[in-house]
Amino acid sequence: MRISDLSRRSGVPVATIKFYLREHLLPPGERTGHNQAVYGDAHLHRLQLIRVFTTIGQLDLTSVRRLLATVEDDRLPLTGIYDILNQVLAPAAEPVAGESPALAEALADVDRLVRAEGWQVRPDAATRAHLATVLSAMRRLAGDWTPDSLDEYVKAADRLVRREVDELPPDPSDRAAAVAHSLLLGEAYAAIRRLAQEHHVSRRFGEGRAL
Amino acid sequence: MRISDLSRRSGVPVATIKFYLREHLLPPGERTGHNQAVYGDAHLHRLQLIRVFTTIGQLDLTSVRRLLATVEDDRLPLTGIYDILNQVLAPAAEPVAGESPALAEALADVDRLVRAEGWQVRPDAATRAHLATVLSAMRRLAGDWTPDSLDEYVKAADRLVRREVDELPPDPSDRAAAVAHSLLLGEAYAAIRRLAQEHHVSRRFGEGRAL
Question: Which among B97, B156, B185 has CB closest to A160?
Fold first, then answer.
């Protein structure tokens, strides 16, 4: 198909497609003449993936490039690709003066949660540090908050994610799609959670009060 | 306390605090002399909230300003504040040429999920449209995917969020803290989900393979 068809079918403007081509996020089409090229379904698929990462994952182009390069590196197992996804989704927070003891305590909380469920998670996983930052912010905001209430989160996540991963094909040949799938399911849960929140906040606090 | 103490206790650099003061995100301190002012615990608390919104919520200053202004508007009930939070967390995706039938179908899927659980969610809630965008991207990536598998997400979210909301004080006087709390818990779940993913992907695909 021509670039105009690629644009129409993907919903991505021609100028944006040309930009992705220049930035080597999208491989070149097959030249058919001076200033003319045709594109295949692989281009369409890749364009859809880039859109998922940029619009729904809200990743910048540097992160998308890193993710796509990882996916194409056949030496890396699927686990390594998820690892890169987690790194770009949870950029390491800058260490903040004065919060190191609280952060160390929060890291111990994360260890406990992971161990309690028997999860095998690398000690240097980006997500561990990110979760610890979140937990220490919780403690600063509400002094009496304890991470015990997260046990239920851990159990729910274990059940939902086990099923997601078991539903992947035995040898996912389209590794980029597998990673995008998991990013989309994470975002779907986050949105569903906010719908639940609208309902329950309104149930508890909204009775008879006008918006 | 002086601005240097405020910086030390919050971990936020003095230059950033001065920037927030200039931008009226932080109310001025009490003047004690030429070029001198003292700050109280309310300033520290507000600084911690701004940090939660910017670093963990990854919101830009325009969104933070909008959220804080909403929190201080006593005419708005708590439900209205969550609504603004959901709007800034799920910016409306630009409509994309050619995807409107798929998007309409996805919106019908969202309606079904919400109705099945008996949730009361406003028809124009920002999160509905956001979830529909996610679901239509899922369908584009995997033609045989159906939203039936989200029933479990809905049930898990209902259970976890009901408890979160019921644990808020009967009349949360610190409404900004309530909203920050809910943002942090959402991020905590997202991080826990990624830890579960690392474990289950490695369990299924990582055996004996080096990272």
Answer: B156
pTM (2 d.p.) = 0.88
Cα nearest neighbour of B106 on chain A? A188
CB A193 within 8 A of CB A160: no
- Residue type (1 letter), B123: P
How confident is the model over A66-121, as pLDDT tens digits? 888 888 888 888 888 888 888 888 765 555 545 578 888 999 999 999 999 999 99
- Interchain contact, A197 vs B161, CB within 8 Å: yes
Q: Taking CB atoms and an 8 Å cutoff, what residues of chain B touch A98?
A: 8-9, 11
Is A156 within 8 Å of B159 when comparing Cβ atoms?
Answer: yes
CB contact under 8 A, A200 and B125: no
Dist CA B11 CA B121 (whole Å)? 38
Task: Work out the number of other CB atoms within 10 angstroms of the CB of residue A185.
Answer: 21
What is the fold, at CATH topology level, of the domain defined by B1-56?
Multidrug-efflux Transporter Regulator; Chain: A; Domain 2 (1.10.1660)
Contact flag A127-B195 (C-beta cutoff 8 Å): yes
The full DSSP string for B25-57 is SS---EEEETTEEE--HHHHHHHHHHHIIIIIS
Give me the residue spans of the domains in chain A. 1-56, 90-167
Sign of the CA dihedral B138, B60, B55, B74?
A: negative
Q: Say if CB B61 and CB B25 are below 8 A apart.
A: yes
ipTM confidence: 0.88
